Amino acid sequence: MSGFAKPLKIAFGLIVIAALIVVPMNFNRYGLFILSQWAVMAIAAMGLNLTLGYAGQVSLAQGAFVGIGAYAAAIMTTHGWPLPAAIVVAIALSFAVGWVLGYPALRVQHHYLAFVTLAFSTLAFLVFRNESWLTGGIYGISNIPRPHIFSIATNKPLPFYYVCLGSLAIVSLAVWWLIRSPWGRAFMALRENPLRAQSLGVDTRRYTLMAFAIGSALGGVAGALYAPLTQYIDPVPFNLSLSLDLLMMVIVGGAGFFLGPFLGAMIAVLLPEWLRFTEGYYLMLYAIAVMGLLIWSPTGILGILDRYLAERRTKAASAQRAVAKSRLETVQ
Amino acid sequence: MSNLFDLLVAGLATGAIYALVAVGFTLLWQTSQTINFAQGEFVMLPAFLMLAAMHAGAPFWLAIILGILLSMLLLGLAFKMLLVDPMMRHGVLPLAIATMALAIGLKEAVKQFFSAEASPFPSIVPTGDVSILGHAVSLQSIGVLVLAILAVFGLTALLNRTSLGHQMQAAAQNPTVARIIGVPVERMILLTFLINAFLVALASLLITPIYLAKFTSGEVLGQAAFIAAIVGGFNQVRGAIAGGLLIGVLDNLAAAYVTTQYRAAVPMIFLIAVILFRPQGLLGRAEERTV
């Protein structure tokens, strides 16, 4: 998006951030819940965007990692541990499991990888449902406490929304830094041409596993926030459709764009709510909107912007060329 | 042992239906690189089209014909023209996501316009039991198995024995060369979409009497068909058939001999094992790497 002048971009970003802080102050309970859910899903989608958008590894298991994080947080906080400790455990656990799930990616790619991760997703759901000694089975875990941050209670919806928004900000900065680091470049090399990346000395094996592990760890973070947000979890929200939803968010927003997951999560979480006035039709309209958008721009919302800016740049460049040429001709 | 025999027959019957759905799935993949995540919903919908026709007063046989024709129109022609054609050249993933959205849309449409409740559906095979080798076997299982096998054999004969089938295979394997030697590739691709729509309508007709017509009934079926297609070999029709039968039997045996809680895990673990150790599927050819 280098077409925008840099100060303009920064100003726009600051306005959006200020709006996210100020506007929800007089939202009702439900509005704040939806907005918090948007922040949580954006974190999970950002993780998947690293794995899929930047490193090019298809995963249909992100929902399972949200589940792992949510159960880790629910079990620990209901046993008296503070939420930050639970988040650390959620990250470590999802990272480790994500690392192991990366191994199939070393052998198979594309749709095969999609189906391995799909199978993993279903297995994780069965474990959540059946191991009731740990997860409470179909009855789930209730009364999940919300944390005290700097000795401020976040039981009310607004303070907890700020917890979610703050976490989103921290994760965004970390991801921003990561994709600009040599690691991020290695991920993109993996996506664009694994063979060439390897011949240039990129340890593709390690980076493939890393792409999975880091992406999954962010799923774990999202889950660890999801549990205190809803204060009650059962296996149903973490079934395969969450993984599919997250994948949809990444693609619809624009895979491989930093801002893609934010927009994708907005479409997936907020658009159905905006369409609620249509009552029974809202999910149908949502499905039609997603299909229409993908037909129009298969690279997602940011793909449209990207194409538009690229077009404008080529036009500007050819205009410059024409001017330069006419000047040359007049000189001759 | 009688228990095992019953399980095998029931497993083969469900497996034959999985095979029908999986064959259509692989056909779409071969000719147009479409991973149809809505394939399960494609099986759910025709039963409702037939029910709607019956509610409008059509007799059962007419409702079946109307249902099959309508699903060929909607799930074959319209699906290809409106969704697949505009997206095909943009790669596998956006189209796969669009079919996920289509799956949501179809489920919601049925829930909204028809019913959120499960509806009973008449069986085209007479109910009752017959005795085979001293075992009572339900006529429904046999009927389903026979019809599904007939459909699959018909399709294989079409693909392997007729000029039309050869043209379809050529269009799937190498569209560029197929075009040069005069195969109407576009028409062949359309034909596979129509065949897929026919197969899912047939599967719908066979499976709905057993599991009732419900807007969510495609979810499990679609997943079983994916697994069957991959286990058998994503690029082979006969692989999908073998995969379907295998998953059907495995599913039924797992329900009986493994804990019911982890019944669904058995096909999944089998799937992971197959992908890791024989990614081309049990009967498939290795796909050439593009790198």
Task: List its salient traits.
heterodimer, A: 332 residues, 2 strands, globular, B: 291 residues, mainly alpha, 11 helices
Question: How would you explain this protein's 3D organization?
Answer:
The complex is a heterodimer of chains A (332) and B (291). With 332 residues, chain A is mostly helical. Chain A is 76% helix and 1% strand. Chain A is built from 14 helices and two strands, in the order ααααααββαααααααα. Chain A has helices spanning 6-22, 29-54, 62-78, 83-107, 110-130, 132-135, 157-180, 182-192, 194-199, 204-230, 240-253, 260-274, 282-296, 301-331; strands at residues 148-149, 152-153. In chain A, strands 1-2 form a two-stranded antiparallel sheet. In chain A, a hairpin with a 2-residue loop joins strand 1 (148-149) and strand 2. In chain A, helix 2 runs antiparallel to helix 10. Chain A is globular, with a radius of gyration of 22 Å. The model of chain A has no long low-confidence stretch (mean pLDDT 89). A two-stranded antiparallel sheet of chain B has the order 1-2. In chain B, a hairpin with a 2-residue loop joins strand 1 (129-132) and strand 2. Chain B starts with a helix and ends in a 14-residue tail after the last helix. Chain B has helices at residues 2-32, 39-55, 60-87, 92-113, 139-161, 163-173, 175-180, 185-211, 218-232, 237-257, 265-277; strands spanning 129-132, 135-138. Chain B is mainly alpha-helical and 291 residues long. In chain B, helix 1 packs parallel to helix 5 (139-161), helix 2 (39-55) packs antiparallel against helix 3 and helix 9 packs parallel to helix 11 (265-277). Chain B is built from eleven helices and two strands. Chain A binds chain B through residues 58, 104, 107-108, 110-112, 114-116, 118-120, 122-123, 126, 129-130, 193-195, 240, 244, 247-248, 251-252, 255, 280-281, 283-284, 286-288, 290-291, 294-295, 298-299, and chain B through 35, 37, 83, 86-87, 90-98, 100-102, 104-105, 108-109, 111-112, 223, 226-227, 230, 234, 261-262, 264-265, 268-269, 271-272, 275-276, 279, 291.
